[in-house]
Amino acid sequence: MTFQPRGFDFLKDVDVRLTVELGRTAMKLRDVLSLSEESVVTLDRMTDELLDVMVNGKLIARGEVVAQGDRFGLRIVELAGSEPEEAPAAAPAKKPARGDAA
């Protein structure tokens, strides 16, 4: 039997878990146990922030919620790692120490 390399095409049928994270919060167990219907839990994300899209727990993109018929959907707005990197800030000019030449 001869092995023919196929690149990564054979991985395309592997099942992965895609999750969209709306936000997080830290709570004491007593507060979790006191939750009931109509309880509101405030999350750490603002309403205008993008949601995290993760595959098997790894961030791959960010997106926004859309309505798709009678279901929620997600529009991908940016892919992880595709944001333009900021240039490093220039170091402040160093003042010469006493006795050093200017």
Automatic annotation (TrEMBL):
Q: Is Lipoprotein one of the keywords UniProt gives this record?
A: no
Taken from the UniProt entry, a GO cellular component term is:
plasma membrane
Q: Which UniProt keywords apply?
A: Bacterial flagellum, Cell membrane, Cell projection, Chemotaxis, Cilium, Flagellar rotation, Flagellum, Membrane
What is the protein's membrane topology class? Peripheral membrane protein
UniProt cross-references to SUPFAM superfamilies, sorted A to Z: Surface presentation of antigens (SPOA)
What's the superkingdom here? Bacteria
Q: Name one GO molecular function term.
A: cytoskeletal motor activity
Domain Flagellar motor switch protein FliN-like C-terminal as annotated: residue spans: 11-79
Task: Name the Gene Ontology biological process terms.
Answer: bacterial-type flagellum-dependent cell motility; chemotaxis
Which segments carry the region annotation Disordered?
Answer: 83-102
Entry's localization field: Cell membrane; Bacterial flagellum basal body
The cross-references to InterPro entries, in alphabetical order and at most eight, read: FliN, FliN-like_C, FliN/MopA/SpaO, FliN_T3SS_HrcQb, SpoA-like_sf
Q: Which family does it belong to?
A: Belongs to the FliN/MopA/SpaO family.
Q: Which PANTHER family match?
A: FLAGELLAR MOTOR SWITCH PROTEIN FLIN, PTHR43484
What exactly does this protein do? Answer: FliN is one of three proteins (FliG, FliN, FliM) that form the rotor-mounted switch complex (C ring), located at the base of the basal body. This complex interacts with the CheY and CheZ chemotaxis proteins, in addition to contacting components of the motor that determine the direction of flagellar rotation.
Q: What is this protein's name?
A: Flagellar motor switch protein FliN
Query: Per the UniProt entry, what species is this protein from, by scientific name?
Result: Novosphingobium taihuense
The taxonomic lineage of its organism, from the top, reads: Bacteria, Pseudomonadati, Pseudomonadota, Alphaproteobacteria, Sphingomonadales
